[in-house]
Structures are given as C-alpha cells and as structure tokens.
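Appendix B, record 7
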Amino acid sequence: MPEKQLDILYEGKPCYDIMLEQDYGALGERVERMGLKSRKICIVTDTNVAKYHASAVEKVCAKAAGKVVTFPFPAGEASKNLETVQSLYAFLIKEGFDRGDVLAALGGGVVGDLTGFAAATYLRGIRFFQLPTSLLSMVDSSIGGKTGVDFKAYKNMVGAFYMPQFVYMNISALMTLPEAEYRSGFGEIIKHGLIRDKAFYEWLVQNRSGLLGRNGAPVTEMVYRSLLVKKAVVERDPKEKGERALLNFGHTVGHAVEKLKNFSLLHGECVSVGMAAAGHICFQRGILSGEDLDGILSVLGAFGLPVSTSGLDVSDILNAVTKDKKMDAGQIRFVLLKEIGDACIDTTVTRQEMTEACKYILGSV
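Structure tokens (predicted):
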C-alpha cells in the first residue's frame, strides 16, 4: 500500500489515483498495471531533472514496458512552448509511438503541463502519467488535468483539460531541489490554506521549521493536506466553470508580474506577490484587518517568499492583467478573501483598486 493515496473523481466517477511514496520502489507495479509489455514509454523530462532521476525511472519502467526512451528538453519556463511540443511530436513519430503507447512526465510543472498537452494532442490523445519532482508540481500542476504551454510570453494560453492515468510522487525527490525552487512551492501551499482551510494554514505556521528543513514526515503530511484542498475543488468543478477559479488566488497579478519579469521570478514567488496585492484590496475594502494582512505577509516572508517587487510600471501590470486567460467577457475575475480560510470570486474589482494594489506591491504607496 502507498504511504498515502488519494483517488481523484471526475464527474463523480473514479478517474486516477495519486500515490505518495518515499522512493520509486512501488512505481514498477503501478506501471505494470497499464499492460505495456509490448508497448513503449517515452519519459519526457528536462535537463536538470534528468541528471537526478531519469536513470532510476528508466530502469523501473524498462521492467514493465517493451521499450523505454527519454526525451529531455532544456530546463526552464522558456521551453514551455509549442516549439518544444513540436520537437516532442517529431521524436515520437521517429520512435514509432502509436495510440497504445504512453508518455511519462518526469519533472516540475513545466514538464507536467507540456507533456500532458502533448499527450492530449498527439494522435488525438494517448495515455500519460505524472511523476512530479518539484514541490510546486506535487501540490498544484500535477493534479486536476490542466495541461498547456505558454504562447508569446502569455502563460498557459494554449492548453487542454486531459487527465493522467495516475500521479506518483516520490517525496524524497524534493531533496534534490535548489532552495529557491523548494520554497517556491510554498506559494501554492499557503494559498490552499488561505482559500479553503484555515486549520491547515495555521498548521503550516506551527510546523514551519520542519517543513523548511524538508523533514520527511511533516513534508509528506503537508503535501497530502494541500492536495486534499485542491482535490475537493477540482472534483466539484473539473473544467473551471465556477469554484475552481478560487485556485487562482494571487494569480491575476502574479501571472502579470511573472510575464513582465520575463520569468526571472519563480511561479510561487509571483503568486506570493499576487496574494499580497489581493490582500491589499481586501484590506482597502475592510474585509481583512490590518492585523490579518500583516499576518499573511509575515507568513509568506517566513517561508522565504517575496511580497513585493520592483522595476515594473503599474500601467504595464494592468495591461498584462487584461490579457490574462482569467478575463470573462472583458471583466477581471479576481479572487479575494472573505476571511482567512474562505475565498470568493469577485468581478467588481475596479481599475482604481487594481492600481492601488499594484502600487502597494511596488512600494510606491
């Protein structure tokens, strides 16, 4: 039995499972259940992750499949585009992949999103499974079926909803992450507590030392509890027609900052800055007290996340926000907090409120 496991439902029916383990020991048995003895697996990964994990995964998969090949691409957000997908298509065609074969996404969010999109579109859809190796991908991008790539620096503008066969998380893989990459994951984790689980948010604060130290048991518990929040939301709204948009707390401004900074800031860092902006709007509206806002900023800072940025122009941020995929008939769907642990979708945020929030994160108020 997995150390921890979640079963994800889609439209009320079992769709795929998420396994939390401390190594790749149980992966072989899970892959064998896919019946791939005469089939091929393509492990899609990036050049950073390949150095640490590709060999181990190749060996495990080779025992369960007829042939295993690996497609590494340059690490980083800059590779998350249609050109990389086209290179993957060409590789799969050359290797003779058909609809019965499988892709394995080994890496962080960029790898998972890109591989899922390729799987959804190659031959009109082939199977794939997720092997997330970053904290951010474990708690966010590997669950929920969102796949996609960036288009002309607009994040995740092209994509599809496409579910994996399963998600296998080797928690010990987190030990190979650079410190900044590891801390970036807390942007999404803290967000989950703020929007839906105050008790989890408070637990994070109480266990900060062990979590930042990457202690095994607390980290596994953190990933599991964070997944429970996202699981509940995506199962109720798998295609983001309503409640799922709550997961975009901090992302409206965060994605704009991410784009304008040319992806020099990590995703979780940008989400943290975006949560500070959203928190400021809540404070200005009298929804959050000054003490609440200061507390949120303090927690983000304690986990090594930024709550401000510099070198950007307010008008550029506002312009980028209006081109984000979260627009709805020309109106920004902004996610605000009613209180810590309870978020709502708001379409009444004004340009003036946005301007003041941008000035706040730029330190010009």
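Remarks on this record: The chain has a mean pLDDT of 94. The longest helix spans residues 216-236.
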